[in-house]
Design brief:
Layout: H1 2-19, H2 28-46, H3 61-93, H4 101-124, H5 133-158, H6 162-165, H7 170-207
Helix pairs in contact: 1-2, 1-7, 2-3, 2-5, 4-5, 5-7
Protein name: ascorbate ferrireductase (transmembrane)
Cofactor: heme b
Keywords: Electron transport, Heme, Iron, Membrane, Metal-binding, Transmembrane, Transmembrane helix, Transport
Length: 208
């Protein structure tokens, strides 16, 4: 995981370098989106996975949940700022919204983020909900990781937009595309593991 994080930081640093934050209103879009989704949200997901998050082993579950929530809030604010910058830039240039694969995946990620936040609140206040806690927890996990996976797909599509292709070579775009693919694979591995943990493991215990 250390090598993966170093690779991610190197790629994100390079991406920020070529977009030159502040050179235009649009330049803040890839900057905030990349930091918010590929660093903050990524670490927020891994916090809840044993032996993968930045917190040391033995950290209480309550501390993990609080850290997870804080990271998700920070990630959301960065992503919202990135979305606002591109929306304003397109309005000024009279460019239609959601007319590319990159923007469509980004829009899906935004909608899923709203549902994921609602599911997270329901999970934190599960005593007030008639839905069994394990289903609330699983729903929150699935929505969150699907939302993050949509972010990864948006980033992969974004590597082949006119803005990025004009500033990179095919080899560099391939390297940049590998980054969200790593996070994408991590997300679905986590979904499968959590499904087995929440639904199949209790049944095995009860059958003994």
């Amino acid at each position: 995981m250390i090598l993966i994080r170093l690779y991610m930081l190197a790629v994100i640093g390079f991406l920020i370098y070529i977009t030159d934050p502040g050179s235009s209103l649009f330049s803040w879009h890839p900057t905030f989106m990349t930091i918010g989704s590929m660093i903050i949200l990524y670490e927020g997901v891994l916090i809840m996975v044993p032996n993968r998050g930045l917190l040391i082993n033995g950290t209480s579950q309550n501390t993990k949940r609080n850290t997870h929530s804080i990271l998700q809030i920070i990630g959301f604010l960065l992503i919202f700022t990135g979305f606002t910058s591109v929306a304003m830039a397109k309005e000024r240039a009279k460019i239609p919204h959601f007319n590319s694969l990159h923007s469509l995946f980004g829009g899906i990620a935004g909608v899923l983020l709203g549902f994921q936040i609602a599911a997270g609140l329901a999970t934190r206040f599960q005593r007030l909900s008639p839905i069994p806690p394990k289903y609330l927890k699983f729903g929150h996990i699935v929505l969150g990781l699907l939302q993050y996976s949509a972010c990864c797909l948006a980033l992969m599509a974004g590597m082949h937009t006119d803005y990025i292709t004009a500033r990179t070579t095919p080899f560099i775009r391939t390297v940049l595309t590998v980054l969200p693919m790593i996070a994408f694979g991590t997300s679905f591995t986590t979904i499968i593991n959590k499904f087995l943990e929440i639904f199949l493991k209790p049944k095995c215990i009860q059958s003994k």
